[in-house]
Design brief:
heterodimer; A: mainly alpha; two-stranded antiparallel sheet; 72% helix; 4% strand; globular; B: alpha/beta; Rossmann fold; 38% helix; 25% strand
Chain lengths: 294, 253
């Protein structure tokens, strides 16, 4: 029983990270149809900024808001400069633009930090375990789950309880009718980029806190996991992003437990096989929708 | 003159849909633009609302040129369109659908006045359409076609419109529901609301507007007072291209 609870906590921790990743990615997609391949690099940059701030001796409690503010500003800047001019452009244009943005911000990171790995030194608390009865849970996992709950709750409150949330959902569903109501698409898009960036800041910290080191090419894994979660849940659906992230976390944890050692190298292939099978059975993903910000 | 469109040429790709169409609307007046399917009525409405930019011609509100003003700026000036097909946001609740109509009001009236007027209009819309009040938390997708049309009108009213643009408000509705919609429009008109309505069916529209014009293949072919047009054979001729003096029996092959 203890082992089972331990696995559930693991699944929730991994799933929370994936759910947040997918949330940030799908938010911008739902408003602009943009599949943002540069999203993973936002996490990497958040990691580098965290590293720089911590190395400069800034207390960790201040590091978190600094990283979030930086990631938010970077995301808005990228949205404004690279994507805003292409509102309404065909998806392929947006896709190529996002590749361009990925390369630019990746090579800036290579120029500044080099190709080699850099260590992210976090407070000792992050590598400790918490004891809840007979269960031993890494503190970082608890922080990840807690952060996931808080971010999702804040996000839902913003989306469902504010006039901006209504404007965002309206713009995602029918941009032209939203414009007829006075909703400004570029303003909605910039706020979506800001929220997406803030989430990237949070996930960047969590992701690299777990991994411990980063390189300018560390974006690949989080990008792949985010896309799998988004596709699994249903492209463009916020509920789907959360579901897809949690399902992916559960699936990976289950494989860690159930697969023999010799098969662990095939984990990623098995995940893709499950996604393909699911898409054959439910082409619009777990949440069963393709285009609504719900 | 409250609203004036002059020599509007509008199209899609290389196809011209409006070919030099003009219209004018006085404060408190109701104008109907009548025409068959494909005549250019919805194109005209989308142009006035800013979703389409004219190739030639101009649009003025109170004498101010708004031809190049984007669609999202026009509700702030008091131009509200209830679009064809109603354009209800299915993922928003009924109340959210209504309140989003008030997005541009703050800029025009200031925050405090906008809040007061929005609340007042919201209550009024719930009074006009009690079903919307009862189901204010339901999603827009849960409503019938007629109820969605009520929601579209209510949402346009939340914009505190100086000009209310109605694009075929009864399209796809049962005749009884269509009559209810017109009942509300009559009420609004009696209160002095300026309205431009486009319609395929002329009878109901002519009963409640001051003036009407007929659009055919993007060109205005007739304009007159509604009362005169109701009694006039020229409407049939303009609308269908049939000379009312000719007996169809004799011309049939």
């Amino acid at each position: 029983m203890t082992a089972f609870i331990q696995h559930v906590v693991d699944a929730l921790s991994v799933g929370s990270t994936y759910a947040l990743l997918a949330l940030g990615l799908t938010l911008v997609f739902s408003v602009m149809n943009l599949i943002n391949f540069a999203y993973g690099m936002m996490l990497v940059w958040s990691g580098y900024i965290a590293m720089g701030v911590i190395n400069a001796g800034v207390p960790f409690v201040l590091t978190v808001p600094i990283v979030i503010i930086f990631a938010t500003a970077l995301s808005v800047a990228i949205g404004w400069v690279a994507f805003r001019p292409f509102i309404g452009a065909p998806p392929i244009t947006l896709l190529i633009t996002s590749f361009g943005v990925l390369l630019v911000i990746q090579y800036i990171a290579i120029v500044i930090y080099g190709e080699g790995p850099r260590i992210l030194q976090l407070p000792a608390l992050f590598s400790k375990d918490a004891h809840i009865g007979a269960i031993r849970v890494p503190v970082l996992e608890l922080i990840t789950i807690g952060t996931g709950i808080v971010v999702v709750a804040l996000f839902y409150a913003l989306l469902q309880r504010t006039s901006f949330g209504a404007q965002l959902r309206a713009a995602a569903e029918s941009p032209n009718v939203a414009r007829l109501m006075g909703v400004k698409p570029d303003r909605v898009l910039m706020i979506a980029f800001a929220i997406s960036g803030a989430i990237a800041g949070v996930v960047g910290l969590l992701w690299f806190a777990k991994v411990g080191a980063l390189t300018p090419r560390s974006d690949l894994n989080p990008t792949i996991e985010a896309f799998i979660a988004v596709v699994l849940g249903g492209l463009g659906s916020i509920r789907g992003a959360l579901l897809g992230g949690l399902a992916l976390g559960a699936l990976e944890t289950l494989m860690d437990v159930a697969l023999p050692n010799s098969a662990l190298g095939y984990e990623q292939a098995i995940v893709f096989a499950v996604v393909i099978a699911l898409l054959i059975l439910r082409p619009s993903g777990l949440a069963g929708t393709t285009r609504e910000a719900t | 003159m409250l609203l004036a469109g002059e020599n509007l040429v509008v199209g899609y790709g290389s196809t011209r849909v409006l070919k030099g169409f003009s219209l004018s609307l006085q404060e408190g007046e109701a104008l109907a633009v009548l025409g068959a399917n494909g005549a250019g009525k919805s194109t005209l409405m989308m142009t006035l609302a800013g979703l389409l930019r004219p190739w030639e011609g101009s649009i003025k509100l109170d004498g101010r040129d708004i031809t190049r003003l984007p669609a999202d700026e026009r509700p702030g000036l008091g131009i509200a369109l209830a679009p064809e097909g109603r354009g209800i946001f299915t993922t928003l609740s009924i109340e959210e659908n209504l309140l989003i109509g008030a997005t541009g009001v703050k800029k025009r009236l200031g925050a405090a006045e906008a809040r007061r007027r929005t609340q007042q209009t919201l209550e009024r819309v719930y009074g006009m359409f009690p079903v919307l009040g009862k189901r204010r938390s339901s999603r827009g997708s849960d409503l019938s076609g007629g109820q969605q049309q009520m929601l579209a009108i209510g949402r346009a009213l939340l914009a505190q419109p100086r000009v209310l643009l109605m694009d075929e408000p009864c399209l796809g509705l049962a005749p009884k529901v269509g009559n209810e919609v017109y009942e509300v429009l009559r009420e609004l008109r009696a209160e002095g609301q300026s309205i431009v309505i486009v319609e395929e069916s002329s009878r109901r529209a002519l009963d409640f507007v001051d003036r009407a014009c007929v659009i055919k293949l993007g060109t205005k072919v007739l304009e007159d007072r509604a009362s005169a047009m109701k009694e006039d054979d020229r409407l049939v001729e303009a609308y269908f291209g049939i000379d009312p003096g000719i007996d169809p029996e004799q011309t049939a092959l």
